[in-house]
Amino acid sequence: MAVQVYGCNHVVIEVTDAKKAARFYHDVFGLKMLRGGEGAVWCKLGEHQFMAIFEVEELQPDSVKHFGLMVRDAKQIQEVRKKLTKKYRLKLHPDFRCDFRDPWGNRIQVGDLSDESLVWLLPYQEVQQAGITFAGKPRKENES
Fold first, then answer.
1. 51 CB contacts (<8 Å, ≥6 apart)?
2. What single DSSP character describes residue 87?
């Protein structure tokens, strides 16, 4: 039998202060804490995933590792960008709409539901409930 993957269950990041990181992610993205204790915090990511935040003594920087978060629309991306740059004084990667490193060096890319290349990953019911519509290009008569 072939294995079928249904999605990503969780993402793990390393920080030097788990409680402070939980406050940061709650402030910027509104993530709700599921549980925590002894140097670890678990935050809900959407309806079906979570982010585990583990405290470590020494961070191991990496140039490629990252994960992406999806917000509703361009307005929310602007809200995130503003909070990151003004309140937390973080730099955004110039080649992306909203790509940054958190205060512990974890790289995060933020997209929104208007990007049709990403939204198909969500259960269709969630897309409908969010009221997302796409203005598709009209097909030419000879296209199928």
1. 10, 11, 12, 13, 25, 31, 42, 43, 45
2. I
Kindly provide the b/e burial profile for residues 88-123, where b requires at least 16 CB atoms within 10 angstroms of the residue's own CB: eeeebeeeebbbbbbebebbbebbbbeeeeebeebe
What is the arithmetic mean of pLDDT over 46-56? 88
Strand partners, 43: 33, 51
Is the pTM value of this prediction over 0.90?
no
* pLDDT for position 6: 62
Alpha-carbon torsion (42, 44, 50, 51), positive or negative? negative
Superfamily of domain 11-57+66-130: 2,3-Dihydroxybiphenyl 1,2-Dioxygenase, domain 1 (3.10.180.10)
Domain borders along the chain are 11-57+66-130
For the segment 12-24, what is each residue's pLDDT rounded down to a tens digit? Answer: 999 999 999 999 9
Give pLDDT tens digits for 28-40. 999 998 887 778 8
What is the C-alpha separation between 44 and 50, in angstroms, rounded?
4
Q: How far apart are the first and last CA of the chain?
A: 34
